[in-house]
Amino acid sequence: MNFFFVLNGKTFKQLVIVVTTAFFAAWFLYVGNIVHLPAFSTKDGPKAIYKGEKDLALTFNIGWGDEKAEPILDVLKKENVKAATFFLAGSWAERHPDLVARIVKEGYEIGILGYNYEDYTELEEQKIRQDIAKAQDAFKKLNVKDIKLIRAPTGHFDQKTLKVADRLGYTVVHWSLDSKDWTNPGIEVIVKNAAQAKKGDILLLHASDSAKQTAKALPQIIQGINSKNLKFVSVSEMIANAETNTSEVK
């Protein structure tokens, strides 16, 4: 009788160990996936877009500087890229109305990158709303109309951000592929990172002065994407023409 009891006790302990180990393994996998998921949505509410089903969207963030945006526009024109989306900080747009006008004139889409470089996850809803509203005013003064897209200035956002953006009539856009150009790792590395592009990707690039190698890497990036027979589209076109992917933020 005692033997029977001891055996069950050992079996139970082993079972607890197995279940506990499995639980923590599953938890770590889950957390790892959440960390790497590039965009989120509330369970039943507004969504953030990070990927489509087909084509490819080039996106450029510009927050400061007056040297890199124009060379990038020159490359896009030379390489005959008709569609791209520029996420512009309102403060930058105010200081560079001529560049904003050129982006519009050449047919590229504009999205809002907030007004200041703020981490929206660290702000209260009212502060997020104020930052977006300030950017709205800046673009209205520049006669840039019908902006429907927004990207969190630092790339960090949460349910709170999604809800504020949705109430103001914007869709939050993240990315599925980061070129890492903002780290200035070398032209070859940027090209290699972008070479992972596949259909439906939203590719993150930068046209701020801090991204010193993007303009030189861009021709090879474009040529590589063309070699895959991927069509360049704006983010709005991607949203309109295909299903887009989201993941829930907790």
Instruction: Please give the CATH class.
Output: Alpha Beta
- State the CATH topology: TIM Barrel
Which class best fits the helix and strand makeup?
Answer: alpha/beta
Name the shape in a single word.
Answer: globular
C-alpha Rg, in Å? Answer: 22 Å
The description of the largest β-sheet is: 5 strands, parallel
The CATH superfamily is known as Glycoside hydrolase/deacetylase
Number of domains: 1
* Helical fraction: 40-55%
CATH architecture: Alpha-Beta Barrel
State the low-pLDDT regions, or none.
1-8, 15-39
* Strand residue content: 5-15%
Domain NodB homology: 54-233
InterPro entries: Glyco_hydro/deAcase_b/a-brl, NODB_dom, PdaB-like, Polysacc_deacetylase_ArnD
Protein name: Polysaccharide deacetylase
Transmembrane segments: 12-30
Show the helix and strand layout.
Elements: H1 2-36, E1 48-49, E2 57-62, H2 69-78, E3 85-88, H3 90-95, H4 97-105, E4 109-112, H5 125-141, E5 149-150, H6 159-167, E6 171-173, E7 177-178, H7 187-194, E8 202-206, H8 214-227, H9 235-241
Structure characterization notes:
The model is unreliable at 1-8 and 15-39 (pLDDT under 50). Strand 5, helix 6 and strand 6 (171-173) form a beta-alpha-beta unit. Helix content is 46%, strand content 11%. With 250 residues, it is of the alpha/beta class. The protein has helices at 2-36, 69-78, 90-95, 97-105, 125-141, 159-167, 187-194, 214-227, 235-241; strands at residues 48-49, 57-62, 85-88, 109-112, 149-150, 171-173, 177-178, 202-206. Helix 5 (125-141) packs across helix 6. The strands form 2 sheets. The chain has a 5-stranded parallel beta sheet. A 3-stranded parallel beta sheet has the order 1-6-5. It has a single domain (54-239), classed as Glycoside hydrolase/deacetylase (TIM Barrel).
